[in-house]
Amino acid sequence: MTTPFRNVTPNGSGSAATLLIVLSFTGFVLLTQSLFIVPAGKVFVVTTLGKVSGGSRRPGLNFKIPFVQAIAPFDVRTQVRPENFETLTKDLQVIKATATVKYALRASEAGRVYSTISYSDRDIYPRVIQPSLVKALKSVFSQYELVTIASKWNDISEVVQQTVAEELNKFDYVDLQALDLTGLKIADEYRAAIEQKQIAEQQLLRAQTEVKIAEQEAIRYETLTRSLDDQVL
To answer: Measured between alpha carbons, how far is 58 from 51 in angstroms, rounded to an integer?
Structure first.
């Protein structure tokens, strides 16, 4: 008695189709891992095995080596951050106000920020902007008395912005676009004293002006009298 055996041979067309599917899927995965799009307002830092390589990738379609290179996004749009601060004046009076900073990360410096400061742009303000801002505020306001600060607030704001910009330029990570000081708060008793001093200064200026006018009128009167006397003679 003989047992019949079926002669099974591999289906050549089926194996080829399977191989084609595998290769296609592998190619798709490699392609998706290789290409990435940088949106407007951002740059991407590319790292090769953890080390920053090349410059910052700008908006548009970009390429990286799959599984070897990684990317980290950084926002380069203008950021607005308010900073409530409290500091001492030259005459040791406490003032409170709000400094609103407008800044933007320099696109060319994103790689250096990644290497030296943080893997994320969220740490740029607390690690770069805030220390320079607080230092500048304390430095500038310690040079002026409270009365001067209250009367020349806009001028001092410009000095603060310039000082902050100089501090930030030492590191060259960001561009300071604007700085606004608002909401000056001082003790009520000192505010009243400032108002009284301003009133006294205005009264003194008015008195000085009246004296000058009187002097000019006296000179004109004397000139006129002398002219009349000459005519009589």
So the answer is: 19
Q: 3-class SS at 63?
A: strand
Q: In whole angstroms, what is the distance from residue 168 CA to residue 4 CA?
A: 89
For residue 120, the Cα-to-chain-centroid distance in whole angstroms is 16
User: Which residue has 């990684």 as its token pair?
Assistant: 70
d(CA 226, CA 102): 67
Residue 170 CB contacts under 8 Å (≥ 6 apart), including other chains: none
For the entire predicted model, the pTM comes to: 0.68
Q: Which stretches of the chain are assigned E, i.e. beta strand? A: 35-38, 42-48, 51-52, 60-63, 69-75, 79-88, 94-105, 174-185
Residues pairing with 95 in the sheet: 87
Give the whole-angstrom CA distance, residue 91 versus residue 180.
Answer: 24
pLDDT bin (cut points 50, 70, 90) of residue 115 is very high
In degrees, rounded to 5, the angle at the alpha carbon of residue 84 between the alpha carbons of residues 193 and 101 is 115
| Distance (Å, whole) CA 217 – CA 106 | 64
